[in-house]
Amino acid sequence: MKFSELVERLGAAVQTSSLDQQPGLDPEISGVGAIASAPPNTLSYIEGAKYAAQVETTQARALILPMDLALQAQAQARQIAWVATPQPRLVFAQAIAQFYQPFQPAPEIHPSAVIHSTVQVGKDVYIGPHVAIQANVVLGDGVCIHPNVTIYPDAHLGDRTVLHASCVIHERAHIGADCVIHAGAVVGSEGFGFVPSAQGLVKMHQSGRVVLEDAVEIGCNTSIDRPAIGETRIGRNTKLDNLVQIGHGCTIGQSTALSAQVGLAGRVHVGNGVMMGGQVGISNDVNVGDGAIATARSGVIGDIAPKTIVSGFPAIPNRLWLKASAIYKKLPGLYQTVRTLQKRTELK
């Protein structure tokens, strides 16, 4: 499409563009690319002045820039069309959607699928090869189920939800509208419930369920456990990366993001707008407040207040952890200093 057409589609997200200053600069845009490797006739973006050198070398014909007059002038000098916005990465995400849409098969029920007679199937549903759907499952309109998915009895899938290949939805799981469950994920598996006794570990049956609210996305090979009683709940618009473990009875709020290999033990409560880096671990019964951040590989064994940043194991305030980390690499020298002082003291 023409650059001017793209700017129109991006709408209110764009505050100004090179079209306002140089209307003749209206190249054809055929796709998107990273600024360092963008092919000709593509759109790219940068988020700040530290990437200014890449504006001089990029092959992109158009850029999404921050509200930085120097960067805008630099792009214009190279005859690169541009738009400016306070949030370049967000606008770039919207631009990608103008050129790419995920694979969406046409509505169909493949003849190899095994579907119980009590299943309720909505309109325009796709059910791929070798899918198994058990009794009393409800599928909303526009649901897409890719090959080899298994859905246990009494599960409910909301409108337009997508289940990718080989994921498993266990009994009584309730999945809202516009959710995406990626390949190999397991929703509603049994929680790790065993009671010690004189005879050994006694299994506690997990009679609860998992609830995913609308627009939740679950990464590949992530597992969300159901509890013995009650429910495990993931709030609206929350995103879980690959290989995440959500223990039984956890509740996660809205618009929260958990990176790869995060692990939550049982009954953890996570608020709204929380962010956790890769390999964060949370112990039983911990409360994480709204807007909190746990940086990568933090080990959280106590409650985190809202809008707090923590790091390390055990997790401590991020600023304190940064100071401690700076000292850590100096420990060998400090040790030698202490040893020298000790010897001087002994000589006296």
Structure description:
- With 348 residues, this protein is an alpha/beta fold.
- The protein contains 6 helices and 38 strands.
- It has a 12-stranded mixed sheet, covered by helices on one side. Strands 7-10-13-16-19-24-27-30-33-36 form a 10-stranded parallel sheet, with no helix packed on it. A 9-stranded parallel sheet has the order 8-11-14-17-22-25-28-31-34, with no helix packed on it.
- The protein starts with a helix and ends with a helix.
- The model has no long low-confidence stretch (mean pLDDT 95).
Summarize the structure.
The protein has 348 residues and is of the alpha/beta class. Helix content is 18%, strand content 28%. The strands form five sheets. It has a twelve-stranded mixed β-sheet, covered by helices on one side.
Helix content: 10-25%
Rough shape? flat
Average of the residue pLDDT scores: 95
Low-confidence stretches: none
Question: Mind telling me the C-alpha Rg?
Answer: 26 Å
Number of strands: 38
Alpha-beta content class: alpha/beta
**Largest sheet geometry:** 12 strands, mixed
Write the layout of secondary structure elements.
Blueprint: H1 3-10, E1 16-17, E2 31-32, E3 42-45, H2 52-57, E4 62-65, H3 69-77, E5 81-84, H4 88-99, E6 108-109, E7 114-115, E8 120-121, E9 126-127, E10 132-133, E11 138-139, E12 144-145, E13 150-151, E14 156-157, E15 162-163, E16 168-169, E17 174-175, E18 180-181, E19 186-190, E20 194-197, E21 200-203, E22 209-212, E23 217-218, E24 223-226, E25 231-234, E26 239-240, E27 245-246, E28 251-252, E29 257-258, E30 263-264, E31 269-270, E32 275-276, E33 281-282, E34 287-288, E35 293-294, E36 299-300, E37 309-311, E38 316-317, H5 318-328, H6 331-347
